[in-house]
Amino acid sequence: MPVKLVQSTPSAYQYPLLIKQLLLTPLAIAPDQEICYQDKRRHSYRELRQRIGRLANCLTTLGVDAGDTVAVMDWDSHRYLDCYFAIPMMGAIIQTVNVRLNAEQILYSLNHAEADVLLVNSEFFPIVEAIAARLTTVKKLVLLNDEATEPELPAAISQALHYAGEYETLLAAADSDYPFADFDENAQATVFYTTGTTGNPKGVYFSHRQLVLHALGCAAALGGANGNGRLHREDVYMPLTPMFHVHAWGFPYIATMLGLKQVYPGRYQPDVLCRLIVSEGVTFSHCVPTILHMVLSHPHAKDLDLSGWKLIIGGSALPEAMAAAAFKRGIDLFTGYGMSETCPVLTLAHLSTTDMQGSPEEQAVLRAKTGLPLPLVDLRVVDADMNDVPHDGRATGEVIVRSPWLTQGYLKAPEASEDLWAGGYLHTSDIGNIDAAGYLKVTDRSKDVIKVGGEWTSSLQLEDIVAKHEAVQEVAVIGVADAKWGERPLALVVLKADYVGQVTEHAIRNYAAHAIEAAGVSRYGLLLQVSFVKHLLKTSVGKMNKLAMRANPQALRD
Amino acid sequence: MPVKLVQSTPSAYQYPLLIKQLLLTPLAIAPDQEICYQDKRRHSYRELRQRIGRLANCLTTLGVDAGDTVAVMDWDSHRYLDCYFAIPMMGAIIQTVNVRLNAEQILYSLNHAEADVLLVNSEFFPIVEAIAARLTTVKKLVLLNDEATEPELPAAISQALHYAGEYETLLAAADSDYPFADFDENAQATVFYTTGTTGNPKGVYFSHRQLVLHALGCAAALGGANGNGRLHREDVYMPLTPMFHVHAWGFPYIATMLGLKQVYPGRYQPDVLCRLIVSEGVTFSHCVPTILHMVLSHPHAKDLDLSGWKLIIGGSALPEAMAAAAFKRGIDLFTGYGMSETCPVLTLAHLSTTDMQGSPEEQAVLRAKTGLPLPLVDLRVVDADMNDVPHDGRATGEVIVRSPWLTQGYLKAPEASEDLWAGGYLHTSDIGNIDAAGYLKVTDRSKDVIKVGGEWTSSLQLEDIVAKHEAVQEVAVIGVADAKWGERPLALVVLKADYVGQVTEHAIRNYAAHAIEAAGVSRYGLLLQVSFVKHLLKTSVGKMNKLAMRANPQALRD
């Protein structure tokens, strides 16, 4: 189209959307605001800015240049926040390594991303020791250390890599001034690997522009809420989704842009988390259901005042029973939806003030919904021909999406990239529906959907029903092969300790069957079988690993 | 710098920031939300979307193509909102004509912008009649009509322009489907002319990208407030800065993106405004001090419950006395800062919850501050060499700025454009200071700053002091030539009717002198003289026209 482009006078500044620009406002309006690392250390935004300069100078000394990749293996720390800014601000790329992957997967991801330098917490020396000799591109290592003394470097590491020194020592010796130049906003800023349940991990990547727009879009949506889950400049932020996982959902960038007090808790230890929530006055976090479960079920959490703690749940569906339990504790929870490929946030499910007047039960249902699209998010639920399904809260289809912050492919994987983007929309592989009010509800990941008698049946709906039985600690519903129905649903149930031997599989099945009839769920739900198991299988980020459980459900009984 | 740009797989959608994308979320989450025009008409966002399609089809029929300019002369209406979207979404440019300019200035701006089609409210026929024969590029006219019957077209208009028909009639006959294509986000979307006090108006222009980023930045800042002035999705929006003036500060775009109920009040008639605030439940507006004064001093406003009405004041400094009066009425007011060249919003001055516990007097001072920079806004106060002045709340300098939403020049005025952007920062020509908490306070427009004894003296500070005298209705402080001091300050005072003849200039001067000494204001303030006048001179958008008042202050006495 012959549009007229705006003419810039030669002296005009053509503002690129760069991560460094997120620091402008906090430094202007909240320079003395605090950033804490557990109760080990705290410093101001002013100091953050100096640390960013020092780190950039250190990395330059190590030979890091624009376009290079610097990998980080750490728990959630103030150091990680330095890295979130300094590395991309130099024009380099930060690789956030998922430390819960196994050593071979980590090796694969470092070699595949062609990382040049590795910053590693000494806790992960055993992993690095096992892979150091096989690293093809990483040549240098910086130590991240929480101990009083510097740990000895294992020989396998010191033989394979140049040891550059300990992080804080290097920073202390470096100049805080660094001339962070402007460059193309489409420069790659980050890379990390998604935790597929089969095959090698896949690399996704995001640009400066995408991360800035994600921060703005999230802030606009989170601030627009009237009551439930509203983020504001007086909140205290603590991540509970690891910083190696989809940039901790982008919140370190958002919290910094808004100038919030930030609390980094290190490794997620329930007692530490409980302590920090109180001592630092944490008011805003985000996590997957598993982490919420871990916190709520910890003995220290029993007497904790969690009221008013705003909590976004995402990553997997929030069971209604867990929503109700958290709500009872006064947690102001709501859900978000997204995935590694989407930066990640696509929707948030704030309750309206009318919704918030509902009964606890009604609110639990609403708070477990997946949400309303953020500004600029074009989210559709479509059939196999990419036609929209009716927005009646029942018709299901695949969730496909466009937004300004989606990975533009998988790193060096052209076929998988084209599959992801078939038809010009990013395919989430999630199955869901949209109701008349515009709420998306994700009913299944397409890879664990159950097809009974040729019809899709929602495993999550059945899980919600079974989870409400008083004896049930955890449940996963999977599909198992069936001669008559193709597949039929099987509930793998972990009983609460008190109930082991006190309740039968048959009793749970009968309970579920009644509830299924009462709830008017698909009649195929009545084919549900129940199997008691010792534990469920989860992925490295705490999601149900249904693919693995499907492969051998019997094994879980032992 | 050799950064690595993100690679897009061929099928990936490279999301351009276009105005049409602002409609995605409201259509998904609030399709039935209302848009009202006075009490004459109301329709849903769903219908807004249809009207946008219809208008685009109408304009296409009239020969409007991408890159063409469509000028609008209307009061704030639902039609204007259609135009805000449909015209740029076609790839065309909307020229928002300042209907308060005189006919010659309007003629100049239409010819200078090379407008192709004119949409005009019949109220402005007298203006168009006077200039129709001299329009060099406008060939076609669409009538915007609020009357029951269609008014007759003056001969001077029908002879010069092709009459295309009445707006609603044309829309009703048009198809609502229109294929709004993607195009370059740097396409020009808008143009309008700034109301300079001398010389021809100057054209400023904004791209799709700039308007989208302005909407996101404002929403992020407005939502981040904790209490004072927070905008959320359950607010009801009504503009009180005209839609012809800097896109009504961008709020029609912001309100639409968030899916708010919107109320368009037509011409600003105090009785209508008062009625709409109550009947439609308006909770969020923005205006210049003059309009607030107009509303508050109207007899109908006396018994109106204005508590909780969130109101951004901008355009000129908010006198502390007016802030106190509004605060007493329960209005939740705060200030913003910006100008035509800046889209406009650069800062907002939300009070923190601590601030809000202050006394009414303390709050009035805080609420009259100009504010904290929005995300991505790089705002500096500099001396003549562009070095930053200390942030101590006292040192003053010129406010210069970078943000992703600044005009890239003045239309077809290369020299003025280079002056505006000298040194790569946009020069606001405003004088201000920044305090330790990061608050900008604009103390003077540099064109009306008073230089006494070689030192800048703040006319606004003196105005604040004089305005607090019980007899004073309005005051403007200007500089007048003085043999000894170069310039000395003169307060032009309009007395309240009850006080005329009851108080002397001398008494006001003595009152001010005491207050100046008590407040510790610059000793040059003591040189203040007072002159009673019948009225003050204002610009077409209601700002004090100090340049004109300086030219002949004596004339105002009559």
Short account of what is shown:
Chains A, B: GO terms for molecular function: ligase activity. 2 copies of one chain form a homodimer. Helices cover 30% and strands 23% of the residues of chain A.
Commentary on this structure:
The structure is a homodimer of 558-residue chains. Chain A has 558 residues and is an alpha/beta fold. Chain A has 3 domains: 42-183, Rossmann fold (3-Layer(aba) Sandwich), CATH 3.40.50.980; 207-445, Rossmann fold (3-Layer(aba) Sandwich); 450-557, ANL, C-terminal domain (GMP Synthetase, Chain A, domain 3, 2-Layer Sandwich). Helices cover 30% and strands 23% of the residues of chain A. Chain A has a 7-stranded mixed beta sheet, sandwiched between helices. Chain A has a 5-stranded mixed beta sheet with strand order 12-13-14-15-16, with helices on both faces. In chain A, strand 12, helix 12 and strand 13 (310-313) form a beta-alpha-beta unit. In chain A, helix 4 crosses helix 5. Chain A is globular. Chain A starts with 23 loop residues before the first helix and ends in a 7-residue tail after the last helix. The mean pLDDT of chain A is 91.
